[in-house]
From TrEMBL:
<protein>
    <submittedName>
        <fullName>Nucleotidyltransferase family protein</fullName>
    </submittedName>
</protein>
<dbReference type="InterPro" id="IPR039498">
    <property type="entry name" value="NTP_transf_5"/>
</dbReference>
<dbReference type="Pfam" id="PF14907">
    <property type="entry name" value="NTP_transf_5"/>
</dbReference>
């Protein structure tokens, strides 16, 4: 595949990280780098375990190798703890007749990297049927987890606007995310039953632990990374790894056509191929379109900056660019559904004009008025 994206604005430090992360990298020449920036980037992009394994035989400064080694060792203990908790939760949920599909975490590290120590995970994400949410919460509370009750809802919109709820164990310092959808709504998704029928079983656990099937996993990882602008390189390395595996690429394309947008699949394939020399196969060609190239170029914005979308407040220029980019990722159908969803009442409407629950239906006709009122007040403050 011919190179098509402009990476001139990416720092030398991140460019060198790209080189180190390539599977067949044999370049031992040491460039002049800002090593503090290099280390900050290794943490920000969550790729320090891989970099630790890559620099062991290179003539990097001693403090760089020690820094990476310390974080690598800490990650080993973290991943071992997550593995133990994952197996425990999976077994308890199974005994309670709750089918569970783990989305990331230790199962992903083993499946894609072949080694728990080479990928980081901060929490456990798993998908269950929505009808079991209440029972799942009871189980986690019994295990000592506390719910982060941050979801605000009007007219029960939480079911489709949101996709997971978070629980935290204060003693174990462990975070779990229970998903009832793969991604935030609105939008079409395969049913849990479909995903369950195509599931894979982890080969690295004592008790049965299940994860998404290969094609579903690729679509999930692409949609998740794209939604975050590929602002963490770890997500793109996941794509690099899964592109090496045997996937039914015709099936993958069908899944994107039905549930997402094939151009987004193309964006991921282009970025992984060009930045990380991921293996490009002939079957991937239908994904590589002019629109996919354009989306890949847009994603370079996030790599030129150390963008953190997870910590508020996100700078206004970043937030504005990200909102525009997210819209550009959508298919025509997704854009139509998204625009229609804006007509549905938001929690902000209830905060602006509190109404008793039986009158919440009035938020539909009142939404444009309440939106305009908030906009006017914001401009007046500025």
């Amino acid at each position: 595949m011919d190179k098509s994206i402009n990476t001139a604005g990416i720092s030398s430090e991140l460019t060198y990280i790209f080189e180190l992360l390539k599977d067949n990298n044999t370049n031992t020449r040491m460039p002049e780098l800002d090593w503090e920036l290099f280390l900050n980037l290794s943490l920000h992009h969550r790729v320090f375990p891989l970099l630790h394994s890559k620099v062991k035989n290179l003539d990097v400064p001693v403090h760089v190798s020690k820094f990476l080694q310390v974080h690598y060792q800490q990650n080993i203990f973290r991943m071992m703890s997550l593995t133990g908790e994952m197996e425990k939760v999976s077994e308890i949920f199974s005994n309670s007749k709750i089918r569970t599909l783990f989305l990331k975490g230790p199962v992903l590290a083993h499946d894609l990297y072949g080694d728990l120590s080479l990928r980081t995970s901060s929490d456990l994400d798993f998908l269950i049927p929505i009808e079991h949410l209440e029972r799942a919460e009871e189980i986690l509370v019994e295990l000592g987890y506390e719910k982060d009750d941050y979801i605000e809802s009007v007219l029960n919109d939480w079911r489709w606007r949101h996709h997971h709820v978070t629980y935290y164990h204060p003693v174990k310092q462990m975070k779990l995310e229970i998903h009832w959808r793969l991604h935030p709504g609105p939008g079409k998704e395969p049913s849990f039953q479909e995903l369950w029928e195509r599931r894979n079983k982890s080969s690295n656990t004592k008790s049965p632990v299940y994860l998404l099937g290969k094609e579903d996993l690729f679509v999930f990882l692409v949609a998740h990374g794209a939604r975050h602008g590929w602002s963490r390189l770890r997500w793109l390395v996941d794509i690099q790894k899964i592109m090496k595996q045997e996937l039914d690429w015709a099936k993958v394309y069908q899944l994107f056509q039905k549930y997402h947008n094939p151009h987004v699949g193309g964006q991921a394939i282009i970025l992984a191929s060009e930045l990380l020399d991921a293996e490009f196969k002939e079957e991937m060609t239908p994904f590589v379109t002019n629109t996919a190239m354009k989306l890949a170029q847009e994603a370079i914005f996030y790599l030129e900056r150390m963008v953190n979308l997870h910590t508020d407040p996100v700078p206004e220029d970043i937030s504005s660019y990200h909102a525009s980019h997210l819209f550009s990722l959508m298919s025509t159908q997704q854009k139509a559904i998204h625009l229609l969803s804006l007509l549905h009442p938001f929690p902000e409407d209830a905060q602006t004009l509190p109404l008793p629950k039986p009158l919440h239906f009035l938020y539909f006709p009142l939404r444009p008025v309440l939106w305009a009122w908030r906009k006017t007040r914001k401009q007046a403050v500025l």
